[in-house]
From TrEMBL:
Residue intervals of the GST C-terminal domain: 88-216
Domain of life: Bacteria
Any one GO molecular function term: transferase activity
Organism: Lichenicoccus roseus
Keywords per UniProt: Transferase
Protein name as it appears in the record: Glutathione S-transferase family protein
GST N-terminal domain mapped to chain residues: 1-86
Record bears the keyword Iron: no
C-alpha cells in the first residue's frame, strides 16, 4: 500500500496520474499547504523539505517501508518498481534527460511565473517578465522536441509525458491573459490533449476531491506558503 501525501497542485498531480495509470493501491493523505500543514513535525518526518508530494510505500524493497519525496523521484521510483512507463532501454538516457529538464526547468520556471504574476507585490515587472519568458522558452524547447513524434522520449508514453502534463495543465496561469495558452505551441498542445484524454487522467483529477482545502488567500496563507519571505523557516 502507498500513502500519498498531496495538495491539488501540479507536482502531486503527476503522481496521481502515475498511480491511476499503473492501477496501484494508494491512500490519499491531504496536506493543506495553505494552512501550513507541510511544516508540521509529522510531515517533516515524511519530507524534510516540507513540500508535497511525498509517498510512503509500505511494501518497498525487501518489504520494508520506504519514504520518497519530490515528484520526479517518486515517478522514477514507481516506474522502476512496477516496470511501467520507462520506455525502452534504448530510450532511457533521453527519458532521464527530458524528465530532469522538466524537473529543473519547466516546472520551477512555470511555478515562479505563476508566483510573480499572481502572488508577488506590484513593482516587480523584471521578475514577472523574466520567469514568464523563461517558462515560454522551455515550452518552445519541448515544442521543437515533439515535432514529428507523439511523445517526449521515444515513441512510448512515459513518466516524462506525465511530468509535463502536470504543469501544462496550468498553462493558463503561466501565460496569464492568453485565451488559448498553448496555441503557439501546437505540438505541445497535442501532447497535453493526448495525455489529458486518457481515462487515468480523468481519474487523477478526482483524487482527493472528498477533501476540503483552504481557499482564502489571507496573511496566514501567505506565511504558510512563503515563510522565507517573512524570515521564517516554516518548521
Amino acid at each position: 500500500m502507498i500513502r500519498f501525501y498531496f495538495h491539488p497542485t501540479p507536482n502531486p498531480a503527476k503522481v496521481s496520474l502515475f498511480l491511476e495509470e499503473a492501477g496501484l493501491s494508494f491512500v490519499p493523505i491531504p496536506i493543506d499547504t495553505s494552512k501550513g500543514e507541510q511544516h508540521t513535525a509529522a510531515f517533516r518526518a515524511v519530507n524534510p523539505n516540507g513540500k508535497v508530494p511525498a509517498i510512503i510505500d509500505t511494501e518497498g524493497p525487501d518489504d520494508e517501508e520506504v519514504r520518497i519525496f519530490d515528484s520526479t523521484a517518486i515517478l522514477i521510483y514507481l516506474a522502476e518498481k512496477t516496470g511501467q512507463f520507462l520506455g525502452t532501454p534504448r530510450d532511457r538516457p533521453e527519458l532521464l534527460s527530458w524528465l530532469l529538464f522538466i524537473a529543473s526547468g519547466l516546472g520551477p520556471f512555470s511555478g515562479q511565473a505563476v508566483h510573480f504574476q499572481y502572488a508577488a507585490p506590484n513593482g516587480l515587472d523584471y521578475a514577472r517578465n523574466r520567469y514568464r519568458r523563461e517558462a515560454e522558452r522551455h515550452y518552445q524547447v519541448l515544442e521543437s522536441q515533439l515535432a514529428g513524434r507523439t511523445f517526449i522520449a521515444g515513441e512510448r508514453y512515459t513518466i516524462a509525458d506525465m511530468s509535463a502534463w502536470g504543469w501544462l495543465d496550468r498553462a493558463s496561469r503561466v501565460r496569464k491573459g492568453e485565451a488559448d495558452p498553448l496555441a503557439e505551441y501546437p505540438n505541445l498542445k497535442r501532447l497535453f490533449e493526448t495525455v489529458d484524454a486518457r481515462p487515468a487522467a480523468a481519474r487523477a483529477r478526482q483524487v482527493g476531491q472528498e477533501f476540503v482545502f483552504k481557499k482564502v488567500n489571507d496573511e496566514a496563507t501567505r506565511r504558510a506558503l512563503f515563510p522565507s519571505n517573512y524570515g521564517e523557516e516554516g518548521g
